[in-house]
Fold this sequence. Notes:
This protein is an alpha/beta fold and about 300 residues long. The chain has 6 helices and 12 strands. The relative contact order is 0.16.
Amino acid sequence: xxxxxxxxxxxxxxxxxxxxxxxxxxxxxxxxxxxxxxxxxxxxxxxxxxxxxxxxxxxxxxxxxxxxxxxxxxxxxxxxxxxxxxxxxxxxxxxxxxxxxxxxxxxxxxxxxxxxxxxxxxxxxxxxxxxxxxxxxxxxxxxxxxxxxxxxxxxxxxxxxxxxxxxxxxxxxxxxxxxxxxxxxxxxxxxxxxxxxxxxxxxxxxxxxxxxxxxxxxxxxxxxxxxxxxxxxxxxxxxxxxxxxxxxxxxxxxxxxxxxxxxxxxxxxxxxxxxxxxxxxxxxxxxxxxxxxxxxxxxxx
Length: 301
């Protein structure tokens, strides 16, 4: 295995400040090589971080578009140019190439500590299995959503998002900072165990596969006219069945879930997603058997 650098990105969204603090603390304590694996630390969106806002022009975590022209041109958007810089500097063909990218995020939703994957890449499955086995973290597998693309970790051969919440934007929470520090400190250790055959992947992986998103009910003017139902608040990862309440409007009318398929909601009431017209996303549970191919491809770096 020839993994040499792991890119740790914090502040991809400038108002998610806990990961930045965690990385600063960790960097002071442990910035040396660990069995040949080095961390590269970067604030993803420093301009937005300085201003305490999510982004300057556009969402940086939607700016890594798959295109033959990506990385070859600039436009007026700060985040597009920043995405180009990050890939040019730390991409697999960059001046400081990193084989793995870990993007650290917080959410205002009650997601706990979770892993977000984009697509079904073998290397991602291998790394997610290591972390789920170590910490028991739920996995949100986000795929096949044309409305949301261009995520940072997709620009690297292997990459995961660590998402922790709930916490308000621009609010420090030491417990959340500690959770980030624990995961960062464990990454190289778990990879080293795998490399030296000291650990095996679990036989199966439980994932929540993205199925779609639900907007708030709106009136004819396009304004939100219903709120998330009190029984649904803070119930991320909890199953919803037909007839369960979703929203409550100003007249006291309950909007219920009407489909037969069981779903598991995530990012319920995430503040930053209102502009994307998402009140919550919903998933189905899937059990995926581990494959030797995951480890083989991970070892092929």
